Known about the structure:
With about 280 residues, chain A is α/β, with parallel strands linked by helices. Chain A has helices at about 55-60, 85-90, 110-120, 125-140, 155-165, 185-200, 210-220, 235-240, 245-250, 270, 275-280, and strands spanning about 15-25, 30-40, 45, 70-75, 75-80, 95, 170-175, 205-210, 220-225, 230-235. Chain A has a 6-stranded mixed sheet, with helices on both faces. In chain A, strands 2-1-4-5 form a 4-stranded antiparallel sheet, covered by helices on one side. In chain A, β1 and β2 form a beta hairpin. Chain B is built from 9 helices and no strands. In chain B, α3 runs antiparallel to α9 (about 220-255) and α8 (about 190-215) packs antiparallel against α9 (about 220-255).
Amino acid sequence: MDPASPNGHQPGDAIISLRGVTKSFGSHTVLKDISFDVPKGHISVILGPSGTGKSVMLKNIIGLLTPDEGEIWVDGEQTVGMGEKDLYRVRRKFGVLFQDGALFGSMNLYDNIAFPLREHTKKGEREIREIVLEKADMVGLLDHMKKTPGEISGGMRKRAGLARALVMEPEIVLFDEPDSGLDPVRVAYLDELVVDVQGKTGATFFIITHNIASVMRTAEYMGVLFRSGLVKFGPKSEMIDSTNPIIRQFLAGKPRGPIGMDEMAGTAEEWEGDEELMNTKILTV
Amino acid sequence: MASAFVEKPQTLMRESGNMFAVALEGLRATPQIKTWWREYIDQCWFIAKVTSIPSILISIPFGAVIALHVGSFNKQLGATAATGSAMVLAIVREASPVAAALMIAGAGGAAMTADIGSRKIRDEIDALQVMGINPVHRLVTPRLWASATVGALLVSLVSVAGLGGGYFFNVIVQHVSAGAFLSGFTTLAQPWDLWSSIAKAFVFGMIAGMVACYKGLYAKGGPKGVGDAVNQAVVVTFIFVFFVNFIMTSLYFALVPQKF
C-alpha cells in the first residue's frame, strides 16, 4: 500500500510521505502540491523563509490540520480522512517538540515528562521514575525536575519538551523551529543534543527551521519550501551542490536572489545562471 | 458591501455551531468519569472559591433594593405585610439564578477562558492532541459539569443572602413585623419556585462553562487574543443567560400552575 516515490527513495524507506498536499486558508494558498518522502531513521530538515507554511505542513503531518487535497502517509497508513480514533492511534507514533516546548504550565518538569507515560501506559510509578530520570539525564535537566516551566529558561523548556517528546520512544520526532528564541551557542548545544539523541534512539527526526547553521549541523536530508511550494528535497550534499537559485540564495543567506523581503523579488528562472549568486559561498559548518 | 451581509451571519452561524459542537463533544465524554473527576473537583472548588463571597456581596444589597421598592409601594397601599411574599418571588425566582450565572461567568468563566486560552496559545492544546488525548474531553467535560454544579449550589446561597438583605431593610428599617414578612413567603411562592430556580442556575452555569471553554479553545493571536476571548466570553454568556432565562421563565409559567 505504499505510495509511489517521487524523489528516488525506495518506498519502504519512507516513514512519512506527502503526495500533492495542498492547503489554503481562505484565498491564501499556504501549501501548494507538496510531495516528498521522509526517509526512515534519519534526520530530515525542511527549510524555508518565514511565512512559507512550514508550521502548517507540520500540523498537517500530525493531523492537527487536514489538507484540502493530497495524501499523507505515515508508516504505511494514509492519514487524511482518517477517523478520530485511528488518528489518535497514529499520533502515538509521534513525539513533537513545539516551538516553546508546550509544557503544561501547571505541572513541574518531572510531571510534564511523566505525563505521556501516566496517560498511555500501565507502568508503575517506580518504572515511570526510571524512564523520566533517564530522559531528563539525556537532555541534562536532572537537577531541575521540581521546577515549573515558568521558572526555567527558554532553552531548558525546549530540552524538557524534547525529553517529553522522547519518553514514549516514538518512531518519529517532529521539531517545530527548535532554534527559535535561542542564542547561537544554545542552538549549537541543542543541535548536538539532537544528533546525539537521534544516534541513540535511531528514530526518524523531522525538523522545520530557517536556521542554516543549525541545518548544516544536523541534517542528513533537507528540503526547501518557497512560496508555498517545495523547491527540492534530497540528501544534504545534493542540496549544497544545487544550482537552483532559490536554494543557493537561501543556503547562502544573502539578499541577492529570487527571495525578496516581501517574498516576491523575482522568479527562479530570472535568476537562473546568475554568476554572482552561483559563486556565493554557502555557510557550511 | 453585499459580501459583508453574507459573511457576518455566516461567521455567526459557524461560531455558534462550533460552540455547541464543543459542548456536545464535552458532554459525550461524561461517562468516562475516571478521566475527569479530579479536574471536576478542582474546578468546582475553584469556581466556588471565586464566586461565593462576591455573590453574597451583590445579593444582600440587591435584596435590600427590592425590599425598599416593594416596601414603599406597599406602604402606600397599606399592604406592608405582603412585602415578604413579593420579595421571595423576585429573589428566588428571578434574581438569584441570574445573579449566580453572572458571577460564574464574570469570575469563574473569565478565569476559565484565560486559563484555556493561554494554554491554547502556548500550544498546550496541540500538545495534548499530539499525545493522543482529546483536549475537549480532558478540559471541557469537567468544566461544564463543575460550573453547572456550582451554579446550582450558588443559587441557594444567593437566595438566602438576598432574602437576608430584604429582611433587614423590611423588618428592621421599615418596621414591618417579622412574622408578617416570613409568613408572606408562602402566600405566592411554592416549592416549584425553588426547584425551577435551581434548574435555571444549573443550565446557566453550564452555558457559562460552554462559552468560557469554547472561547478559550478558539483563542488566537497571542496574549491580546486571550484578553479578547475573555471579554467576548463574558459578554456572550450574559446575552445567552438572559435569553435562556426568558425561555425558561415562559416554560415555567406554561408548565407549573400558579397559586393566584
